Amino acid sequence: MADRSGGRHVIVGLVLAGGRSSRMGEDKALMRIGGHTLLERSLAVLRAAGAERVAISGARAGGIPDRWPEAGPVGGIASAAGGLPDGEWLVIPVDMPRLHEDVLRPLLATSSPAAVSWQGHPLPMRLTMNAATREVLAGVMALAGRERSVFALQERLGTTRLPLDGIDPRYLLNCNTPQEWREVNA
Questions:
Q1: Which GO terms describe its molecular function (predicted)?
Q2: Looking at domain 4-184, what is its CATH homologous superfamily?
Q3: For 140-159, what is the mean pLDDT?
């Protein structure tokens, strides 16, 4: 199932955009910043970081529908795992309007057999998708409620957590509410 280009795995970018945006009151993926929607911006950031193939989780045009509704970000990852190739994945949420490629590149540069994220931030992350990761992911999806989370997946994979040295934590802020959105745009 590996998608290869020149003998190496292709870097896959995945934008998690399947949530209901209930706290925001409107679809976060379609909110605009700098003349672009958050979804357009997220796809561009992934490409700039080196993703040669990008995908979107969620029931929207061109998206990968959630096989597990209401399962949060880990459900989006699990749904995408059914249709995307093995290799190095960059997984980002659609609601990080300040995220840019310089925050993602160190995740790709770090050698880790399973996953890499920033300390204190489960997303974005670099995830090595392979048979072992798919097995762990299936186990996490069998859990109930809050036990089924990106954090649970990362704990079971033994994720490497990078210190935020030199990374402005504001680049990793999610916007889930109108107040957070106003603060980001201030």
A1: molybdenum cofactor guanylyltransferase activity
A2: Spore Coat Polysaccharide Biosynthesis Protein SpsA; Chain A (3.90.550.10)
A3: 93
